[in-house]
Specification:
This protein is of the alpha/beta class. The chain has helices spanning 14-27, 39-52, 71-80, 98-106, 120-134; strands at residues 7-10, 33-36, 59-62, 88-93, 110-115. It has a single domain, classed as Rossmann fold, CATH 3.40.50.2300. Strand 3, helix 3 (71-80) and strand 4 form a beta-alpha-beta unit.
């Protein structure tokens, strides 16, 4: 695998989603992405994917501070879906609050924590770790 096949960005800031998709495209480390401004709509999308046996992303990039539902609330609801497929969830946040990092480290669904913005180097490190985990 030279690139991720499918990534998802969940962030209520459209500019962040556009920027992160550009990083993915320009780096060549991701083939396809989908962004959600609403974590509620993202949850519905995952439920639909499960029911239709659609293609799941390898990575979900999740913001913490969103108005409809926080990233932590999203994780609780995501876990309740009891999906067969478990993509890696990466917190991608501008928060440098130590408690957010500690919560991220302790959460069983969260693979890692990256401070915004996403970079080619972050994406490459994730791809390397993902490939190693698949061996």
């Amino acid at each position: 695998m030279q690139a991720f096949d499918f990534l998802i960005f969940i962030d209520d800031d459209r500019a962040n989603n556009v920027f992160h998709e550009l990083v993915m495209e320009e780096s060549g480390l991701g083939k396809m992405a989908r962004s959600f401004l609403s974590p509620v709509k993202a949850l519905a999308y995952f439920q639909e994917l499960e029911e239709q046996e659609g293609k799941f992303p390898e990575i979900i990039f999740l913001d913490i501070n969103m108005p409809q539902m926080t990233g932590w609330e999203f994780l609780d609801r995501f876990e309740e879906l009891e999906l067969k497929t478990h993509p890696w969830i990466v917190i991608l946040s501008s928060s440098n609050y130590h408690k957010d990092k500690a919560l991220s480290d302790a959460h069983p669904l969260v693979h890692s924590y990256i401070e915004k913005p996403l970079s080619k180097e972050n994406l490459q490190a994730l791809l390397n770790a993902y490939q190693d985990a698949q061996k």
